[in-house]
Amino acid sequence: MVIRLVVVLAVLLGALVGEHSTAGPLARGYNGLAATPPMGWNDYNAYGLDVTEDLVRATADTMVSSGLRDAGYRYVTIDDGWMAPARDAYGELQPDPTRFPHGIAALAAYLHARGLELGIYEDAGVHTCGGLPGSLGHERDDAAQFAAWGVDYLKYDNCYAGPGCADHSCPDGTEEPARDRYARMRDALLSSGRPIVFSICSWGTGDVSRWAAGYGNLWRTTGDITATYASLLSIFHQTVGLGGYAGPGGWNDPDMLEIGNGMTAVEDRTELTLWAALAAPLVIGTDLVHARSETLTLLTDPGVIAIDQDPLGRPARLVSAADGLDVLTRPLADGDTAIVLFNETDAPATIATPVSAHTVTDVWSGTTTTVNGEIRAIVPAHGAMLYRVAA
Description:
Layout: E1 2-4, H1 9-19, E2 39-42, H2 44-47, H3 53-65, H4 68-71, E3 75-77, H5 103-112, E4 117-123, H6 139-149, E5 153-157, H7 178-190, E6 197-200, H8 208-211, E7 218-220, H9 229-239, E8 251-253, H10 265-277, E9 282-284, H11 293-299, H12 302-308, E10 317-322, E11 325-331, E12 337-343, E13 349-362, E14 368-379, E15 384-389
């Protein structure tokens, strides 16, 4: 069945600018960092709490040898599980001596010597989600410790949050507003003497997208992603309408990329296409040491990364949706427009959108053609096509 999605490009571009006019100065970043969405790797989706120093070093070496670093993936983030079960006698955080025998500072130096940057994990509550020491009441000391170690990026979770939260009885911070706890760590990082990207991980709760631009550089818009198309689709729907709150310095974060973790090849490509259109952080969540060449090729596609990292920083807007067939447009800094045709359904379908006479590049194939009147494609089930329309 052919679904003709009627879109007048000039009108849409005007509407797109208007939709993003609410972003305001806070979306430009409170600390001067993350002018484009951060790119990197995080261990949690592939390894859970089983992170080690050797794993991080091996992943860093793979990021260099595979071309991921040169493609823009810089941050290597250690998620939950890196800490010892208790603070030391002085109240300081300690790395687990078995998992990280050489300490965090040595690991940061290892990454920095390879042109990479270190990310680390903590929590705004009394414990991390894995039950290790949280930063509540220790914000300034912990931020100073991270700076001394050479940390460049902090992922800050929201478990066991609020005074008296000794267990998961208030995991969403109901005893104290999340923004108050995030503000304390924001201020502590600013006082630490080191530029540290601040990733707010409160799972989309408390209308976080509305206020987070003045608190962090990226903020989760949803709960945790899983390596399923249903999860991908749900997160897309929860994030696509929030573009007006994001921009250079502050980004909507639909969670880590599940590429290589078990979805189909079409779904892997769809995830990267949508995340790039949404100006989302590109944080790889797979085992890179054993990643297939197809996964690495997908993740390093220069045309897709260029759209994600476009310096104008305006996320795509959903301009048409009918029966699970979507059209998104995103204005780019050089005057070009990115267009996504996304087939949410379980069967191939034709999606078309009108344009004037333009040079159009299929970003994934690299094929450039001149179109007169419309872009039209048969999009596979769960698939997404990505085009760059010349100014």
